[in-house]
């Protein structure tokens, strides 16, 4: 789906005329004075420039449609913030900063997801072992004691596991069932 949007964007971009150097200078003078139409044309006329920056980050963890969106936001901010100097260098710097931040955010989210998945798996494993040992499901308090974690954290992990299953629609016989439902509604 993202690729479809990206392709539509590329098709629309073919209809937009890039700014010439002379046009850019004139538009920058007007934009600094607050001319909204000049700002709009500056953005429009430099979308290919933003796209080229986004392509530098292809295959690094984000879909091209997301990269284009970040690059276009950087371009828009560069136009809004411009006062004097080399516009293209300023725009490139602004675009690159947003693209790098988006990739960093993506990387951080992935690490958090991996950490939480490890915690869910560990909780499921310990819950299963305790159920065998006790002949019944372990309580949240017993799990917390065994895992040396606060009960609130155990409840959060359990809730997250159930929430993840409800989002993916994978209900049925799963290891999460052995965690019980105690404490979810608090």
From TrEMBL:
Any one biological process term the GO annotation gives: DNA-templated transcription initiation
Gene Ontology terms, MF aspect: DNA-binding transcription factor activity
InterPro entries, per database record: RNA_pol_sigma70_r3, RNA_pol_sigma_r2, RNA_pol_sigma_r3/r4-like, Sigma-70_RNA_pol_init_factors, WH-like_DNA-bd_sf
Highest taxon in the source lineage: Bacteria
Domain RNA polymerase sigma-70 region as annotated: residue spans: 118-172
Protein name: RNA polymerase subunit sigma-70
Organism field: Candidatus Caccovicinus merdipullorum
Origin organism lineage: Bacteria, Bacillati, Bacillota, Clostridia, Eubacteriales
């Amino acid at each position: 789906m993202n690729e479809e949007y990206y392709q539509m964007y590329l098709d629309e971009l073919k209809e937009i005329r890039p700014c010439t150097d002379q046009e850019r200078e004139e538009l920058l003078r007007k934009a600094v004075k607050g001319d909204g139409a000049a700002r709009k044309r500056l953005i429009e006329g430099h979308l290919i420039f933003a796209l080229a920056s986004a392509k530098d980050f292809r295959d690094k963890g984000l879909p091209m449609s997301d990269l284009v969106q970040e690059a276009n936001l950087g371009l828009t901010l560069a136009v809004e913030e411009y006062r004097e100097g080399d516009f293209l260098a300023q725009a490139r710097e602004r675009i690159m900063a947003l693209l790098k931040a988006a990739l960093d955010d993506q990387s951080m989210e992935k690490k958090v997801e991996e950490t939480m998945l490890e915690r869910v798996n560990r909780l499921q494993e310990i819950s299963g072992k305790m159920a065998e040992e006790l002949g019944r499901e372990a309580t949240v308090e017993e799990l917390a004691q065994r895992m040396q974690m606060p009960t609130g954290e155990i409840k959060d992990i359990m809730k997250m596991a159930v929430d993840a299953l409800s989002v993916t629609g994978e209900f049925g016989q799963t290891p999460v069932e052995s965690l019980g439902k105690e404490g979810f509604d608090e």
